[in-house]
Design brief:
It comes from Paenibacillus enshidis. The protein is α+β, with helices and mostly antiparallel strands. It is 53% helix and 19% strand. It has 17 helices and 18 strands.
Amino acid sequence: MIKLNFYTKIVTLAVIMMIPIMLLYFYSNKITTDVLSEELGTSNINQLVFFQNQVNTNIELVSSWPNLLIHDPDILSFQDIFLEDEYLNLDAINLVKRIQTKLSLQESSSNWDSSISIYSPSLGRVVTERDAQRYEASDLNKEIRPGWQVEKVMGDEGERFVFSWYTVSPFSAERHPETANTIIKVEFDSSNIQDMLDRFKSDGRGDPFYFRKDMGVIYNRTANHELIGRLLHGLEADELKDGEKRILEVNGKQYMVSLVLSEDTGWYLIDYMPLSEIMAPIDQSNRLFYVSAGGLLLLSFLAAYMLYSQVQVPIRQLVAGFKRLAAGDYAVRMQRKGSHEFSFLADRFNQMVEQIQQLFEKVYVEKIHVREARLKQLQSQINPHFFYNCFSFMTSMAKLKKHEAVIAMSHHLSRYYRYTTRQERELVPLEEEIEFVTHYLEIQNMRMPRLSYSIDLPQRMGRLSVPPLMLQPLVENAVIHGIEQNAENGLIRVTAEFDQGCIRVHVDDNGKGMSGMDIFALEQKLHRQMDENMGCGVWNVYQRMRLRFGESAGLAFSRSVYGGLRATLYWTDPEFINVLEEDRSDQHIAG
């Protein structure tokens, strides 16, 4: 058996200790990098889906215009006019002017630059917002096809695309346009989509563009055409799929490319981000760690040689320190005694442990950042049913000519979505959150006059800083599950209080409420991972409260004094307590 001397044993021990640290760091770093890449890709896909929905909403709005206009009395009258000569009489001219006015109003209802054309086979004329002239029926019949038609044209600013949609009345005449009573065409060009791409890019989300293999590319106005061309060349090597993420290498750099397909137009919305630049800080940290670990290993060899020539007491202390470190105790530190060589070794040992501890803390902080990014994405969710119900209300009021109700609903709805979609701050004053909830309740009150509400917020508590969209999900649950399901008059009451250092915000309703067992089951679900049976709004509020204010914060439910359910947010805010103490001191001095 080979007998090792003391120096060899110390060197061997140092090497053995560095191996698990290196392996653990390598494994931890790989997990962090994979999670970050996945979360970045998922976040980018979600952002693209949200943007795609906005574009599709505008396209669907434009495509719905013919269905609205086709039943207009003036347009119905227009299709029944037959001319005995080629000139319009006075009644027909007035009818055309009324139709042009309605077309102008319809086109101005959207922020997209679009146009509407109405073809009357009986008159042989086409009416637009600005003109009424003859058209060639044979040419029109060739253009009419179902769905959106896209035509590539060259303009002063370069290549652009024109999107067209034809609606034939009656519908049965779609295959034989010459037998149609009325043909309505809506049209817009790709500059509208470019405007939205520019706004999307201005938020710092990358370099988005649209692509369709048989047509071409719709760029944003500051796009890197050369780089996009190389990326498309790599993408076309395989079949494109909706919602996929790919890693492509161009000019020695890796790019994460995300794709979302528009079912309405068949175009892919594509965005990319330089993955190598995003991962550069992590790579730099890796290099620093490996250099540090190599340096620390060399220093360990030197320390082993010095310890070999010293007394046995410092050696036993060093061995004991390494054993504690191997056991995972990164708080271990060696005490410096005297000014001899062992003191130098003690300093180096302490620095090594501190650097390792800092590296582990960095990994933990990165995980927290990824978690916060995912929670921020959940804040941007919008309830489409709420959106459709509001527009249905506005449509009904407009038909009843109740313009004040339409204006009020538009005001509250715009303030509501401005708050939800333009929220970049991590914290907002509680008074702003209360104002946002007030707009939501006003909207619900207009839809359900039997709903009444009251908000009681002490003035001094309005300065409290809270995560945005924290209170609205609780109020929304009270309306949907407490008020809408009850035919009687509904009440929502929001109150806030500050007692013995604890802040509480209550949301009460007079709905049917919940049993004690149901309340207990609901609170238990908040502590687990979100599933399909748990509403994401309530779970998201609870997780953000815990993440922002710590383990002492949370969300609780109980029976309300009004007969329904009470939801209570509670937390402590040391900064707010200090502000209150200063106010009390100022009042005492003034007294």
